[in-house]
Amino acid sequence: MFLVKCKVDPQIIPELPSDNLVEVIPPGWPQPHYTYTNNPLTEDRFILGRALFYEPMLSKNNDISCAFCHKQEEAFSNKSHRVSHNLQGADGNRNAPGMFNLAWHPYYMHDGGVLNLELQPIAPISNPVEMDEDINNIVSKLQASRKYRTLFTSAYGSDSVTSQRILKALAQFTGLMYSYNSKFDQYKRGENNVQLTEEELRGYQLFKANCNACHTEPLFTDFKFRSNGLKASNDSGRAHIEALPQNRYKFKTPSLRNVEVTWPYMHDGTYDSLEVCLDHYTMPKKNLVNLDPLLQNPMQLSARDKKDIIAFLKTLTDHKFLGDMRFADPNIPKHP
Q1: pLDDT per residue over 66-121, tens digit each?
Q2: Cα separations in angstroms, 36 against 21, 160, 166, 196, 317
Q3: What pLDDT does 2 receive?
Q4: How far apart are CA 59 and CA 85, in angstroms?
Q5: Run of H or E including 225
Q6: Which domains can be identified in the chain, with CATH numbers?
Q7: Least CB-packed of 66, 156, 246, 306 within 10 Å?
Q8: Integer Cα distance of 195 and 192 in angstroms
């Protein structure tokens, strides 16, 4: 008698808008760093990338997908935990950031340790406190799956599963996560007669005076590495990649797009609210090592100023992106 434990391939629901799968550069935005010149966009490759993003076989124990830490309704961040973790109870050091407009990033991860969108998934896949898997094992598991042999055939013309095909398909999915349709974007473009309230406009002016140097429009980040004075931890930041004293405790400036839904904040999930984040910048810093020159003095913001800035920040929430069915879990039936 043989006892066989098998996992039935889940159904993948093929419904997907076939339009708008194109590279987009919104008006006034810079040229993206990642383009699809060497990874031509097709609907079948996007569908494959979407399936892989939600596929737990990418983890060692077949229980964690990319979406485990990156949830669409949270702009592909994770409110449930301050730092990334796995189901075995192991915690990492860093908060799972939101995922959008990745094509414009010159490097990835909080410390900038990955330089290409196609290589980015290797970091969480191989991290022992995240997915803890080897890409070669993933290739073997997917090759044994009838579902994935079918998807790879549709995407690439043969059922051969390779690491390059996996990573390129994931880049097709994640690279098209564009977020540029917030209330603020519509206001700036003069669309649909959208106007900001007086509170939001005051917040915008205060933001430009106090925050825009680091969180630069239109991406609301300058992608530079900075220390913002958080209390020192066991995470050396950029120095983990370039072991230089001047890199210690520096992390990549995060985008403030969709910041309303991407808490907890900071690289280690220290703060639970935007109010507390602004408090951090109006008080003396706890860690002066490599403190950014722009933050040497606390910001002079009143309680009303903070309220207005937060009102403005909420206009950066892109509800169209958060509900875009192209990026939803394909294994969950969608009801009209």
Answers
A1: 999 999 999 999 998 888 877 677 778 899 999 999 999 999 999 999 999 999 99
A2: 11, 22, 15, 35, 27
A3: 32
A4: 12
A5: strand 225-226
A6: 43-179 (1.10.760.10), 183-317 (1.10.760.10)
A7: 246
A8: 9
